[in-house]
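Quick look at the format.
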Amino acid sequence: MIDLHTHTNKSDGTDSPRELVNKAIAQGLTILGLTDHDTTSGWQEAAQTLRANLGLALGSEISCLTTDGISVHMLGLLFDGNHKGMQEMLEETRDGRMPRMRKMIEKMQMAGIDISIEDVENARPEGATLGRPHLADALVIKGIINSREEAFNGMLNNDSEFYVSHAAPTPAETIAMIRSAGGVAVIAHPFASLRGKTLTAQDFEGLVAAGLNGIEVDHRDQNPDERNMLRTIAKELDLVITGASDYHGNGKLNALAEFHTDPAQWERLESQADQRRVVWA
């Protein structure tokens, strides 16, 4: 099995990179994509844990914004982790997360919700990329909501009165940087309408022109009709079709490898990187 989209406690997951690798081995995965938000800080620990027949496809899920303000997530896989431009882009995106968090908290406080940046920092694991899930965890700890799932279905949804967009590169800029760093770009859950506004079918042509390699089609946040539409788009534009869990440990309901990528599709995707970078024990 091949799962190309997972998270650890280096961003908003609950498993350490070591724990994630151990679970992937126990479950019989053959390729695991490690894609923490806007960071590569979990790569070394994950690689050091490798054994058996598991290969590690190192990457990152990069936060993007379209010119009209739609939030897009781009999976960069198999890129050179030492590429200066890529690391600078990831750092700039991480730096933009704190002002955004403060604005969201300010909105909540103005609505009478008892939450502070200190509460969020106390809920965030040391060194983790700051994100809305940590605000959700803080709200759970304070007894304001019951779970992350409840938070993202309500208070932290993209259409919520408390939502604040963030400074981020455009999808095309992100794709160009991933490809410049030798990697491959797969757009994550692009039709996940429950999260808020999504791209249209027409938007993909511009992304292909920028160098997009694939579309994450099979994902729990996309209903069957959305998956069918994406599968058609991918075939028409000759893009790789992937499936993945978007696993976050206990942070979400998503189960490791609940959706996965066909080996032939993975082989095609891997061949489009500038060199083979899958890490093996």
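Next, a different chain entirely:
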Amino acid sequence: MAEPEVLVRVENLVKHFPITRGIIIQRQVGAVHAVDGLTFDVYRGETLGLVGESGCGKSTTGRTILQLYRPTSGSVHFEGVDLVKLKGEDLRRMRRRMQMIFQDPYASLNPRMTVGEIIGEPLIIHNVARGREVQERVEHLLELVGLNPAYANRYPHEFSGGQRQRIGVARALALQPSFIVCDEPISALDVSIQAQVVNLLEDLQQEFGLTYLFIAHDLSMVRHISNRVAVMYLGVMVELASRDELYNHPLHPYTQALLSAVPIPDPAVEKKRKRIILQGDVPSPVNPPSGCRFRTRCPLAAEICKEVKPEWREVSPGHFVACHMV
């Protein structure tokens, strides 16, 4: 079997947000450790699911990969080019190849612009089309995402949440990117609409050979759409494996606890299953625990977990984990 082609390579990615004090002279008194040393690859044409509880750094990871947030340290290679070293016009040119679908369809569309202007804006900014051609491309994109091209002159407030998210998808597709970060694109939508948006994303991936980093909370939806799944906890990645491998043989205690919370639509299986309830709260990212980040809530924690940070290692082909007990 041919080796998959790496489209995005992330190495030791770190993003800390400074905490400052003072009104006139501001000094840094600490930092929020949002992302702390991530290393992983995204293969061309795949969907990599990224899961974890709220505040673990999933969205920050997506935005830092796209350089919407500049990383504190580390590198992001996209098609062999290190985005961290690019500035100005060079970075702007690379931006055409990478796009983002934002989490909140109510906040991510400008209420003062028509749908046609919202979707056409990237085409004009990047000098891809002008005049009548922009209008034609916008109408084609609206058709692609299942909306009436005549809606181009309407404003975002005239649409439902699901329709707005489709407009966000159309905007992301306008420049024909090869990589799209989907930042919880369905979490703000009704359950009935979620399936439509996910099916739309899958159809577009088939048609245009897109690569997705799919950030989500919903583990059953991630299982449905992803080829591989990565699990994050408090700014670090704890496990990464192919979808079936991760769901059938989770190795990290945090992954096991997460998956034990997913309901199974079979009463007989559900009855026998043992839930893993984690004790305590998630520590603050301002002052994360020493050694293993998960040790304060881990049922297997030992003395070594306090002192030594677990190494991110490959335990079987394609299955990575960071845990002393595995």
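The first strand starts at residue 6 and ends at 21.

See the schema section for token definitions.
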